[in-house]
Design brief:
By secondary structure, this protein is α+β, with helices and mostly antiparallel strands. It has 13 helices and twelve strands. It holds the Pfam family RVT_1.
Length: 339
């Protein structure tokens, strides 16, 4: 059995230092903090939680637990939440666990501009869970209206720091090293979560920083066009990276919906294309499904016929390296012209 105690160090002044230790107690539950097996053992410990939760979808990642509850009727939504809270209280009690109330938040997702961020009452162990309008989830800033301006703003702040590093080193190191720094520090940040926010109009802010970065790397002024620089450095534009993320997601998970031939028998040149669904909301218009269908239909036949995900991604990259697209409309327009 493992014993544990708490130690506190106190500095009364610059000459005196006191150390206080609590009484040693044997621990019957839990694992040492920072241990190698800690995360795995914790996952095994909470692995049965989803089986005890009904009326909601639960997402577990390490020690981060999220529950999604949906319904069009607010009264039914309130009833579902109440039942889930009862189930959670029972599970936590049986497993001798508690939640961190300060870090536990609720969010009411609304497509329209919200007048109030609050929603149905959420009571856990007689404590009311507070609502928030935005929250950082696994490095992604999520807002209740599913807009990405907050995340893009946060990302731009990080990218500007990388830009400063490149500017400071451009006269000290080779272009090869600058390019490696770009992929390690800049593109890695941009690629994370790009599939969510890449279709937003505000992504132009990230693209402007990317162009400034390329000009620093090549040591040219801001009047020089970046299109030849993208091709020379073999760097993909933000738009091209987004296209790869969306289409590889389509290919990897076989998200192929209805084709035009399934709906009508007319012999047109677009008969084998995926059917573009009608969009009633801006959220669905920018969704991975809708954007992915349009992008896939424009792809050259050689890329579409790729056998596996790796071959598909390789051919798609080669296609985009020679065509530095600045916007999605530019990609779609060129595809229609070539077709």
């Amino acid at each position: 059995m493992r014993s544990q105690y708490v130690e506190i160090t106190s500095n009364d002044n610059k000459y005196s230092r006191n150390r206080f230790s609590s009484i040693r107690r044997n621990t019957k539950f839990g694992i040492p903090q920072g241990s190698t097996l800690g995360p795995l053992l914790f996952l095994l410990y909470i692995n049965d939680l989803p089986q005890h939760i009904t009326n909601g979808d639960i997402v577990l990642f390490a020690d981060d637990t999220n529950i999604l509850v949906t319904d069009k009727d607010k009264s039914i939504l309130q009833d579902k939440i109440k039942r889930i809270m009862i189930q959670l209280e029972s599970w936590f009690s049986k497993n001798n666990m508690i939640i961190n109330n300060d870090k536990t938040k609720a969010m009411l997702f609304q497509l329209k501009k919200p007048h109030d961020i609050s929603g149905p009452d959420i009571i856990f162990n007689n404590i009311k869970i507070k609502y928030t309008s935005q929250f950082r989830f696994l490095g992604i800033n999520i807002t209740q209206n599913l807009k990405w301006s907050v995340h893009i703003q946060s990302l731009c702040s990080k990218l500007n720091k990388v830009c400063y590093i490149i500017k400071s080193l451009k006269d000290e190191v080779s272009l090869h090293i600058l390019r490696n720094i770009y992929f390690a520090k800049f593109q890695s940040l941009v690629s994370y979560g790009l599939i969510f926010w890449g279709g937003e109009n505000e992504s132009i802010k990230v693209f402007k920083i990317q162009k400034r970065m390329l000009r620093f790397m090549k040591g040219v002024n801001n009047r020089v066009s970046c299109r030849p620089l993208f091709k020379e450095l073999k760097i993909l534009t933000i738009t091209s990276l987004y296209i790869i993320e969306v289409l590889c997601y389509f290919k990897r998970y076989n998200i192929y919906t209805t084709r035009n031939t399934d709906l009508y028998e007319y012999n047109t040149r677009r008969k084998d294309d995926l059917h573009v669904q009608q969009c009633n909301t801006s959220v669905f218009k920018k969704s991975v499904i809708n954007v992915g269908i349009k992008l896939y239909n424009i792809l050259p036949l050689e890329v579409k016929k790729s056998k596996g995900c790796n071959e598909f991604k390789h051919k798609l990259k080669l296609f985009l390296f020679d065509r530095p697209f600045y916007t999605l409309n530019e990609f779609l327009q060129q595809g229609h012209e070539e077709a």
